[in-house]
Amino acid sequence: GQQVMQIPQYQHVQEGEDFTTYCNSSTTLSNIQWYKQRPGGHPVFLIQLVKSGEVKKQKRLTFQFGEAKKNSSLHITATQTTDVGTYFCAGPFGSGGSNYKLTFGKGTLLTVNP
Amino acid sequence: EPEVTQTPSHQVTQMGQEVILRCVPISNHLYFYWYRQILGQKVEFLVSFYNNEISEKSEIFDDQFSVERPDGSNFTLKIRSTKLEDSAMYFCASSLRDSSSYEQYFGPGTRLTVT
User: Fold this and answer.
1) Which chain B residues have a beta carbon less than 8 Å from that of A90?
2) Tag placement on chain B: N or C end, fewer CB within 10 Å?
3) What digits encode the pLDDT tens for the residues B15-62?
4) B65 in A contact zone (CB under 8 Å)
5) Statement: residue A92 has pLDDT above 80
6) Spatial separation of the C-alpha atoms in residues A13 and A29, rounded to whole Å
7) Residue of chain A minimizing CA distance to B93
8) Looking at residue B51, what is its pLDDT?
9) Are A101 and B33 within 8 A, CB to CB?
10) What is the rounded CA–CA span in Å between residue B35 and residue B18?
11) Which residues in chain B are contacts of A107 at CB distance < 8 A?
């Protein structure tokens, strides 16, 4: 079945350093989504990327969707302690195109040393 | 801001017992989902539900699991005879799914502990 691979599994940075997590799919995706899960919390939607080569920014976060729509990245500039959490990419799959399930990557746990 | 709610926040049950996890999706959403997350692992899809029927289910969602939307607001997950390995955080999610918006909104989760 379709898989979403995410690396690295863990990343520890000093506050102020940059952080990047990468997501690779075995097949082309119609779109890819990114979620953040704080420790003890639930996944919270961050962004959806749809177009080939798309780049979207949210303050210090930059999201990219690859030209082949099979990979994506999330980059955080100048991390802060509030960025701590697990970042998941997720790819949607449909049955007959009428509904979706999300297949999540294993996530990257980001810890930030103040 | 509208949000998905789930009850209870924590459920402890004995192996073999039935449990019902409850969710209230966002009111104008049309698609409903259950996911589970074993401690420290990734979020795993269980089932999606649309128009009062299951749309997709994973291999995890065997005959011990069932879902129901008993009224216009609640969405429930029932596990008929719990096993130790059912211990996990269970998240309900809902989505609007129009032509441009597929993001899913997750509830805070129910932590199920089977002893």
Assistant:
1) 43
2) N
3) 999 999 999 999 989 889 999 999 989 999 999 998 889 988 898 999
4) no
5) no
6) 30
7) A43
8) 87
9) yes
10) 18
11) 42
